[in-house]
Description:
Layout: H1 2-17, E1 40-47, E2 52-60, E3 66-73, E4 79-90, E5 92-93, E6 98-99, E7 108-113, E8 120-121, E9 134-140, E10 145-148, E11 163-165, H2 173-202, E12 204-206, E13 209-211, H3 217-234, H4 240-245, H5 251-279, H6 292-310
Antiparallel strand pairs: 1-2, 1-11, 2-3, 3-4, 4-7, 4-8, 5-6, 7-9, 9-10, 10-11, 12-13
Helix pairs in contact: 2-3, 2-5, 3-6, 5-6
Amino acid sequence: MDMCRGWTLFIAVLWLGGCGDDTTGSPVDSEPGSAPRFSGTYQVEQRCNGLGPARVDLTARGRGGNYFLLVRGGDASPVYAAVDRLELDLAWNNDSEAFEEAADGLPIYNWQARPTKDAGWLEGPQGTEQMPEAGRVAFDRENNRFFFETACAEAPRAPAHAFQHQDTRLVLHDLNVAMAKARADLHQQAGLRYMEQRRDYQGGSGREGVSAGHEDRNRHLLNVAELMQADAKQNVPGLARLVAENRPSDEAAAQRYQQELPAYLRAAARAHARWYIDAADIRLDWFNGNYPEGEAAIREGMAALQDAYLGMAGQ
């Protein structure tokens, strides 16, 4: 049985790995016998979380089941969400030593978005999760659509809940992929800078030996806010070139791009601030005036990041 499973896993690796990094094609164009791979933009009429219609843009990052995810919700007032590391892999059934299938024979995939302390975001401006962070997806290769098995448990195959493949990508698709790669560098650099602040606050070994840390929460908040302000002034403006480089050449598409840009950049600013807030174990809902200077500084840091990101929309 172990040998059988080993060969099955080996074949599965070849099966998935042979799909390449197709950012524009459709999974139904895969080689005969290859694993179906999600690619392109899918539209749903009704998300199971009650948020209504959305368009979901999936871009394979490298080989295997890793993707960039961009979500556009809303209509006249768009809401964007993005995850720079979405894992979407065929689910393994340990009991039968085979890949899992739904009752109707569709293959099951595990959906796992990883936005916490990583680049990317799932929540809208009101803190509402735009897509599931974890779940199970059934993929209908023949009709190039997928369904959430978990979030839509009561009616997983209802036509309104089907994510149907579309012919055109989201207009911010290219920008999001470029920004995702830039965010990875930004967050890596931010992590190195924050390590110094964390060591100062919590204690630990550093260039000058071992420190005991301190218990001044207000000072900790001020230090983190200073990092946010520094990013807003020194690092975010450098992303403006990506906004210009990824503006579509088609006039109509460029107009849509400009209209959609502020909503996307506003969400990116929230995510940038959230990275520091999560990394520093800060809870905004605990702000009640106990540390007035530090709490005000964190809010100002968030505002500075938003101003810096939105400033790119006018360039």
